[in-house]
Write a structure and sequence with these properties.
Layout lengths: L7 H29 L3 H24 L10 H28 L4 H24 L5
Helix pairs in contact: 1-2, 2-3, 3-4
Length: 134
């Protein structure tokens, strides 16, 4: 199971789908604000939900070889949301921790935090959400 984390092809498929989900998130939030004058928080929330749904479906269909359209479910999406929220906690912890103990510039701290949250999401998704059940 842990050997799946070392699969470079899986990692790059996961990364590619994550980029697509991030773009969907960003574009929906931008559309809601610019075209419908939605509040930033509402637009960001809608973008987040769409992005995570795109990522969840994309990971099922493309990232993991043992999953496909038939493995998409509300329970699976709920598990994926927990993985994403865990990665947010990691991101915030890294930002708070590095901001407190270092004098590094924020842009660098944020990049480190984004990387840490991506790795957290990848690990939880691979070992739990999309776990291969033999």
């Amino acid at each position: 199971m842990i050997s799946n984390l070392k699969d470079k092809h899986l990692f790059f498929r996961f990364l590619s789908i994550s980029v697509v989900g991030t773009i969907a998130d960003y574009l929906l939030a931008l559309l809601l604000v610019l075209a419908f004058s939605a509040s930033y928080v509402f637009a960001s929330t809608c973008g987040f939900v769409l992005g995570s749904a795109v990522n969840y479906c994309g990971h099922n269909i493309f990232s993991y070889e043992h999953t496909d359209k038939s493995t998409i479910s509300l329970l699976g999406y709920g598990k994926y949301l927990l993985a994403v929220l865990s990665s947010l906690v990691t991101r915030l912890a890294v930002v708070a921790g590095l901001g407190y103990v270092t004098a590094l510039p924020f842009w660098f701290i944020l990049l480190v935090a984004i990387g840490a949250s991506f790795v957290t999401n990848y690990v939880i998704s691979t070992l739990w959400v999309f776990r291969k059940t033999n």
